[in-house]
Amino acid sequence: MLETSARLLRLLSLLQARRDWPGAILAERLGVSERTVRRDVDRLRELGYPVESTRGTDGGYRLVAGTAMPPLLLDDEEAVAAAIGLRAAAGVTGVEEAAERAAAKLEQVLPSRLRRRVGALQTYTEPVPPDRPGPAVDPAVLSVLAAACRDRERLRFDYRGHDGSSGVRVAEPYRLVSWGRRWYLVAWDVDRDDWRTFRVDRIAPRTPTGPRFPPRDPPEGGAAAYVARGVSSAAWRHRARVLVHAPAEVVAARINPAVGVVEDVGGHTCVLATGADTVNSLAVHLGLLDLDFEVTGPPELVDHLRALTARYARATAAAAAAEGP
Q: How far apart, in Å, do the first and last CA atoms of the chain sit?
């Protein structure tokens, strides 16, 4: 049987791991009676941990949020994961300083054995820096948008377009997406009656938020895929619609959502709407499909594929001649 202090720590760890615990299961996990569990719960309450009793046939306990944050109990792997996650968050525009402060506080109280593990990961890991810093995002704005997504409340906000123009938008927020160096809000634009992506650094929310709205079916593929398609396609210089002789699900499994959108046209054929900054990159994407396809445009892509066909033919000409008739 565990000593009282060790048992209290084990009980606290269990309560933090999930929302509700039947008393009988806690007693079984700790190897004590349910009466002992009740006494230990009372001790935790005296230490400031808000533990509620739950009603029901079994009866049980729940750790709830209190007015003050009591000490958080983490096992070794959880503590290391939290420290690494906070350091990674320090690279996210808008929350760098807060993440750095939280990481420093956590690492200060880590046992030496864990501090060495975290230190080794930081010392011998080199992130690839962005080619340029991302736009600053106010964490308070992120909090307002996240709360509106959670509560399904309409938002009115001033939005600054890429051309510098500004206007008031009304939207039903769905998700926040962090993509590269920027934050995006995926929302249903009420005036345009369609899904739209808004850069968070260009949003100035108006308060209070509007009325609640019923949930909608999310955009195809989810919020992250929707942003990936929009962000990538906005930068494409060359676009193409390619007929691929394969089922849509096969093609979709072979491409990143940022590369294109697959449209099912029935049977064993689909259309891939794709693009790239150069026709060479576009040809590479199509080649990596390893499937038969037909291209009718744009003309520069057709010309490039013809040039590649001639080049590959020349590359195999010597082998064909050696094989003979």
A: 85
Using the Cα atoms of residue 171, residue 174, residue 180 and residue 182 in order, give the sign of their dihedral.
positive
Contact between 175 and 216 (Cβ < 8 Å): no
186, β-bridge pairs:
175, 197
Type of residue at 95: V
Q: What is the pLDDT of residues 23-32, one digit of tens each?
A: 889 999 888 9
Q: Are 172 and 154 in contact (CB under 8 A)?
A: yes
- Give the list of residues 6+ apart from residue 66 with CB closer than 8 angstroms, or none: 48, 49, 50
CA distance 276 to 234: 10
How far is residue 187's CA from residue 169's CA, in Å, rounded to a whole number?
11
For every residue of 133-158, DSSP letters joined together read: PPPP--HHHHHHHHHHHHHTB-EEEE
Q: Which of 61, 69, 50 is nearest to 22 (CA)?
A: 61
Distance of CA 226 to the CA centre of its chain: 12
Please give the full DSSP string across 1-21, using - where no structure is assigned: ---HHHHHHHHHHHHHHSSEE
User: Rg (Cα) of the chain, in Å, rounded?
Assistant: 28
Helix axis angle for 34-46 and 23-30, nearest 10°, is: 90
CA distance 93 to 135: 7
38-94 residue pLDDT tens? 999 998 888 878 888 887 666 789 888 664 555 666 777 888 888 888 877 766 666
- Strands 194-199 and 182-189 turn out to be antiparallel
Largest CA distance in the chain: 93
Location of structure tokens 């051309």:
163
